[in-house]
Amino acid sequence: MYRAFQGTVRLLSRVFLPSVTVDGLHNVPDRGPCLIVSNHQSILDPILIQSFCPRPLHTMTKSTQFGVPVFGWLVREHLLAFPVRRFQIDPQAVRVALRRLEQGRAVGVYVEGERSWDGHLQPPRLGTLRLLLKAGVPVVPCAISGSYDVWPRWDRALRLAPVRIAFGEPVPLPKLDDRRARERSLDDAAAAVMGALRALLRPAGTPEAVAAGEGRRG
User: Fold this and answer.
1) Which residues does the chain have with pLDDT short of 50?
2) What pLDDT is stored for residue 69 in this prediction?
3) Quick one: CA dihedral 182, 83, 54, 152, positive or negative?
4) Total domain count for the chain?
5) Which residue segment(s) compose the domain that 99 sits in?
6) In this structure, are residues 147 and 49 in contact, taking their beta carbons and an 8 Å threshold?
7) What is the pLDDT of residue 187?
8) What is the pLDDT of residue 204?
9) CATH number of the domain encompassing residue 60
């Protein structure tokens, strides 16, 4: 069912979107646990990212979607999603994420916690940063751009616009089991992850993008 979903979305995207480009697929590990950390511009993001990610992606999804008849069953049983309660601490969602990482899965999280209202990056959620620091697995930034132009959260009508999905080099973050050490590292983790996403959102080849890339490698 998951692979059928991917194929269907890819086919429909060719019909309804003028272009969807995907860069950096080689940055997604072929196997083993990893976290795919994305920005969030539109309701289309999880559909598109899961469809073009080379690995099945277990995505943290807002809990209200699981109460929708049929759709809730579909995302839980066949699209590998698991619920998270937004705007509050949710230890159960963290436990599920860590358990799936222990099983060698790829887990997807949206670092902003909700869709953007204006297409720009929002501040990261501290709970997500704590998860990244506790997990100790490769953290792959995934920036999606253009989906806000196709379907912003304040509009019900779809528009035609090109969409780009870019997977970046893994962000080096430490594995910190001590809670106090995680709290002290939140600012550094936020700067590293959000910096990587900003660099991927810039047009390739611009001086800002090149400089940001060199800074990450250093």
Assistant:
1) 204-218
2) 61
3) negative
4) 1
5) 2-217
6) no
7) 97
8) 46
9) 3.40.1130.10
**DSSP secondary structure, the chain, as one string:** -HHHHHHHHHHHHHHHSS-EEEE-GGGS-SSS-EEEEE---STTHHHHHHHHSSS-EEEEEEGGGGGSTTHHHHHHHTS--EEE-TTS--HHHHHHHHHHHHTT-EEEEETTSS--SSSSPPPPPHHHHHHHHHH-S-EEEEEEESHHHHS-TT-SS-----EEEEE-PPB------SHHHHHHTHHHHHHHHHHHHHHHHSPTT-HHHHHHHHHHH-
Q: What residues are paired with 108 via a beta bridge?
A: 36, 59
Q: Which residues contact 10 (CB under 8 A, 6 or more apart)?
A: 51, 52
Contact 111, 130 (CB under 8 A): no
pTM of the full structure: 0.84
What pLDDT was estimated at residue 206? 39
Residues 31, 50: Cα–Cα separation, whole Å? 16
61: CB partners within 8 A, 6+ apart? 46, 75, 81, 82, 83, 84
**What is the rounded distance in angstroms from the CA atom of residue 189 to the CA atom of residue 42?**
24
* Tens digit of each residue's pLDDT (9 = 90 or more) over 87-112: 677 788 999 999 999 999 999 999 99
Question: Can you give the pLDDT at residue 141?
Answer: 98
Q: What is the DSSP string of 126-189?
A: HHHHHHHHHH-S-EEEEEEESHHHHS-TT-SS-----EEEEE-PPB------SHHHHHHTHHHH
Residue appearing with tokens 């002290």: 184
